[in-house]
Amino acid sequence: MRKVIVCTFLTLDGVMQAPGGPDEDATSGFEHGGWQKPVSDDEVGNAVADWYEPADAMLLGRKTYEIFASYWPTADPGNPFTERMNAMRKYVASRTLTSVDWRNSTLLQGDVADAVRALKETDGGDINVVGSGDLAQTLMRHGLVDEYRLTIHPVIIGSGKRLFADGAIPTALEPVSVTTTKTGTVLGVYRPSGEPTYDSY
User: Fold this and answer.
1) Is 174 exposed, middle or buried (0-12, 13-18, 19+ CB in 10 A)?
2) Helix (H) or strand (E) holding 40
3) What pLDDT band is residue 148 in, cutting at 50, 70 and 90?
4) How many CB atoms within 10 Å of residue 44?
5) Per-residue model confidence as pLDDT tens digits over 92-111
């Protein structure tokens, strides 16, 4: 069975919104777009590149799809990610889009949870969920996330969309690998391992 892996850039206080630029996602008046680059480093880029190696597909929500589809087809061909992003298979979950034109993109049909369950049963490599906070929330609620690959950066934003928002399903996580870069970013890979346990001191 294929694994669905949530790959997300986070601030220390858990914000995932608009890491890439000021105009990336200003939903709800968000004014901190572009927070990632000043607190990133080469080790982060190398880790993310490694995280993409076992994957042959991305699973995207509408907003992230539209951001990517407006950028990557004309991005710098010298960027090693450009051809990778354009060539990779993209599956798009949206209630409003009627077509997707970016190369190798497919619009999922019907209930998204059912569509992703069916996708996991197909042949292929890992499926990375990139950005797509609303979609990630849906997948988490339905127990469809097999792994989290998170870059947790040393900055506090104080507002914005969070990956683990209020109402997230309580879940225990097994650490697969956790390292820290020279500039303080935590590179964490975790797998869900059932419900949390509770105790007292």
Assistant:
1) exposed
2) none
3) very high
4) 18
5) 999 999 999 999 999 999 99
CA distance 129 to 188: 16
Ranges assigned E (strand) in the chain:
4-11, 55-61, 89-93, 105-107, 126-130, 147-153, 173-180, 186-192
DSSP line for 108-154: --S-HHHHHHHHHTSSSSEEEEES-HHHHHHHHHTT---EEEEEEES
Choose among 7, 8, 13, 9: nearest CA to 155: 13
Residue type, 122: T
Using the structure block, give the residue that is written with the tokens 């792994």: 147
For 162, 168, 192, the CA distances from 143, given in Å and listed in that order, are 18, 11, 9
Q: What is the pLDDT of residues 17-32, one digit of tens each?
A: 999 889 888 889 999 9
